[in-house]
Design a protein that fits this description.
Layout: E1 2-3, H1 14-26, H2 48-59, H3 78-88, E2 95-101, E3 106-111, H4 113-119, H5 121-124, E4 137-144, E5 149-156, E6 163-171, E7 177-188, E8 191-200, E9 204-212, E10 218-226
Parallel strand pairs: 1-4
Antiparallel strand pairs: 2-3, 2-10, 4-5, 5-6, 6-7, 7-8, 8-9, 9-10
Length: about 230
């Protein structure tokens, strides 16, 4: 695990703050972030000594840039988060689907929960916790004061993996997920599909899709699914 900061501080770097924050919540029944909906550290071996060692190494200003062995590290359980989100949606709600094409033309319709589940598949399939692929991802944790978020960021340099980056933003006060952003790139024959998507908790998600066709032809499409409107 690599702890990094967006901006260094004079007395205590954000890396130390983020790590101390993680230590505090890891010690609460070995769970990340003390979320009531998601208990994700049951398999994590609690070790105060190891955590304190990591703290002193990180606060010493030296960051290990080598990818660590992630087999024993539990990444944030985004798949479980998305499953909980989908299950919490009331089937009686009016769910809006908005499709915007390259020319800016919009097509709106009302869909049911079954259609929402179909459209949400790219999120549900973006599981990087599988042991066969998690070793290719690097985890970074940092605090963003401008958005009042603690961010868990996962990136890979392996172009054979579909999920290239994944960011989980948690509210610094409630420790609940606010948003999740994912970048997916997939090649099908001579066509490359790039998806940049985002999910806002209990409200909506979007998928921006760029399809690169042979001959440098490009097709873009954005879908937005909204099931809860806030005034």
């Amino acid at each position: 695990m690599i702890i990094m900061s967006q901006k260094p501080a004079n007395l205590l770097s954000f890396s130390c703050v983020a790590l101390l924050y993680s230590i505090t919540y890891l010690n609460r029944k070995c769970t990340f972030l003390n979320s009531p909906a998601i208990q994700i550290k049951k398999k994590f071996k609690c070790s105060h000594l190891c955590l304190l060692s990591l703290f002193f190494v990180s606060c010493n200003g030296t960051l290990n840039n080598q990818t660590s062995n992630n087999d024993s590290i539990s990444f944030y359980p985004v798949k479980e988060y998305f499953i909980n989100q989908v299950n919490s949606i009331d089937s009686a709600l009016d769910i809006s689907l908005i499709i915007t094409n390259k020319n800016g033309t919009k097509d709106s319709s009302v869909i049911d929960k079954r259609k929402l589940l179909e459209l949400a598949q790219p999120f549900l399939l973006s599981d990087i916790n599988s042991r066969s692929i998690k070793k290719f991802y690097k985890e970074s944790i940092f605090q963003d004061l401008t958005t009042a978020s603690n961010t868990f960021s996962y990136t890979t340099q392996n172009n054979e993996l579909t999920v290239r980056s994944l960011d989980v933003l948690l509210d610094t006060s409630t420790q609940q997920v606010k948003r999740v952003f994912i970048t997916r790139i997939e090649s099908k024959g001579d066509t490359t599909i790039t998806e940049k998507s985002g999910w806002k908790t209990n409200e909506k998600f979007f998928i921006n899709k760029i399809i690169q066709l042979p001959g440098n032809k490009e097709y873009t499409e954005q879908i937005s699914v909204v099931w809860h409107y806030y005034n």
